[in-house]
Amino acid sequence: MSLQLRRGTDAERLTIVFQSGEIIYVNDTKLVYVGDGVTLGGNLVGSIGSGSNIYVSETQPVIANEGDGWYQPSTQYFRIYQGGAFQSIKVHFSDIAFTIDDGIF
Are residues 38 and 73 in the same domain? Predict the structure, then answer.
């Protein structure tokens, strides 16, 4: 027996109010949402505003939550999503300490 979830693109998701408890998988962003019967596009599972996602890609993520991070390998820049856009961050190395851990996380 299999369970099939509602699925489609992020653009499609943003046009629908999903039923309460309905689970949605977004093919292009690979994120999962749950409907509440009110919110257009549903509610992102696990990271609404928590900034728990870190994206590693050459192109800017299509969707992000406040506090999410994005690392662009070709430029070696790391940005934080804040106020509706990815913001560059400045690090003063004299203010931080590094710990190298080669273990498996």
Answer: no
Given this model, what pLDDT does residue 105 score? 42
Question: Can you read off the two tokens belonging to residue 48?
Answer: 């609404």
Report the number of distinct structural domains present in the chain.
2
Examine residue 92 and state whether it is found in any structural domain, yes or no.
Answer: no
**Owning domain of residue 76:** 48-86
- Report yes or no: 42 and 13 within 8 Å, Cβ to Cβ: yes
Is residue 42 within 8 Å of residue 48, measured between CB atoms? no
d(Cα 22, Cα 36) in Å, to the nearest integer? 8
Q: Model pTM?
A: 0.47
Confidence (pLDDT) at 89: 73
Is the CB of residue 78 less than 8 Å from the CB of residue 57?
no
